[in-house]
Write a structure and sequence with these properties.
single chain, about 230 residues, alpha/beta, MutS, DNA mismatch repair protein, domain I, Nucleotidyltransferase, domain 5, 2 domains
């Protein structure tokens, strides 16, 4: 992606939001369309059978890839991206374009991932739709697991052996077939390739969330300990 200072104001917005949501496909509302740019445009063109074109060129004269969908058709295209394992950040116009001075103000108002989608049209089927969190404790050689089905509110915890081959973890993933797995950003290096090999959507999260998880859960459920 070209440096921000060489981009138009609208493309600078795109770059800013992509830096905030680097693992998401950015659906950028522009008038009557949600448009995608750069590598996102290539991915959407391939996955959604969209025409790949360009809006402008970067300072080197290279076309900036662009593909888009009508805003009223987002409910048709969004589920297809989520079912293919992508995460999508929806960026809306937050001011009237007619009143805008310069580039229209925009903001990401929704992030949809396989494990957090609540619409039946996005993730069809009758089974549980688990979002799974994996928190390894190297000192105790155990792995803490949390499962949440956001569509029903079902939530439970487990603690398993943290053996080097992660066989216990593999068993739990196969048993519960989570749609998405959350891991701390400081996850052991050998665990990430293993999780990726399962074919699940892997989402790193701030380690602070995991460090304070026990206290947060105790406060949420009004208990002294787990």
């Amino acid at each position: 992606m070209a440096p921000a200072k060489t981009l138009t104001p609208a493309m600078q917005q795109v770059k800013m939001f992509k830096e905030q949501y680097p693992d998401c496909i950015l659906f950028m509302r522009m008038g009557d369309f949600y448009e995608t740019f750069f590598e996102d445009a290539k991915i959407c063109s391939r996955e959604l059978d969209l025409v790949l074109t360009s809006r402008s060129k970067d300072p080197e004269g290279n076309p900036i890839p662009l593909s888009g969908i009508p805003f009223h058709a987002v409910d048709l295209y969004l589920p297809r991206m989520i079912r293919k394992g992508y995460k999508v950040a929806i960026c809306e116009q937050v001011e009237d374009p007619k009143q805008a001075k310069g580039v229209v103000k925009r903001d990401v108002v929704r992030v949809v991932t396989p494990g957090t989608a609540i619409d039946a049209d996005i993730i069809p089927g009758q089974g549980a739709r688990y979002l799974m969190a994996v928190n390894p404790d190297l000192k105790k050689a155990v792995i803490g697991l949390a499962f949440l089905d956001i569509t029903t509110g079902e939530f439970f915890l487990k603690e398993i052996s943290g053996g080097q081959n992660y066989s216990s973890l593999a068993t739990e993933i196969e048993r519960y077939t989570p749609l998405e797995i959350l891991v701390p950003q400081d996850t052991p290096a050998d665990l990430i390739p293993f999780l990726v090999s399962t074919g699940k959507v892997i989402t790193p999260a701030r380690s602070l969330f995991f460090d304070n998880a026990e206290q947060t859960l105790c406060e949420q459920f009004g208990v002294a300990s787990l």
